[in-house]
Design brief:
Blueprint: H1 11-19, H2 23-40, H3 47-72, H4 77-108, H5 111-139, H6 150-166
Helix pairs in contact: 1-2, 2-3, 3-6, 4-5
Length: 174
């Protein structure tokens, strides 16, 4: 993508970023070299602080690459089916355990285990079903209906917003 015309990036730096196959690697290398220069000149950073900041920059880069991996890689169908089977088996086991806890709580007239069992069943079910919906969306971005093209548009908008957040030159699109 071309850089936005903000005037913040000089033409020489813009040429370096545009010619690089991975502009984010150039950005992270520049940040690390800037931190090292600040530490070397003893202007602002002592050595322990430099190491902490370098670790934070490396962690930021890893998280950014993970985000791009998960938004740009389609999951295999078999992995989605395996995740679905595991989640539904867990939910069936969760219902059985919750029924046992609720029965024991009703017999002893204890309200705390009964309410805990109910909220655990409700919340965990919604979380896992949400994860399944996310897996299904990533596995089949066009949706179940072959005429459902807005899903692909929404996914493209998500990719654009993620890329905009990872680039430091502009804000996410509205």
């Amino acid at each position: 993508d071309p850089l936005p015309p903000s005037g913040l990036c000089p033409p020489a730096e813009s040429a370096v970023l545009s010619s690089s196959p991975d502009p984010l690697a150039v950005l992270y290398a520049w940040v690390l070299s800037l931190l090292a220069a600040l530490s070397r000149d003893h202007r602002a950073l002592p050595e322990p602080t430099l190491q902490l900041l370098q670790a934070q920059v490396a962690e930021l880069r890893n998280h950014a690459s993970e985000a791009l991996l998960y938004t740009q890689t389609q999951l295999p169908y078999a992995a989605v089916q395996l995740a679905s089977a595991v989640v539904f088996a867990f939910l069936a086991q969760l219902v059985a355990v919750t029924a046992g806890v609720a029965g024991a709580a009703l017999r002893s007239r204890a309200l705390e285990p009964l309410s805990t069992a109910y909220f655990t069943l409700a919340l965990v079910s919604f979380v896992y079903l949400g994860l399944l919906a996310l897996h299904a969306e990533l596995a089949n971005p066009l949706g179940d209906d072959p005429c459902d093209f807005p899903t692909a548009t929404y996914r493209a908008a998500l990719l654009d917003a993620t890329a905009a957040v990872l680039r430091h030159g502009r804000a996410p699109p509205p």
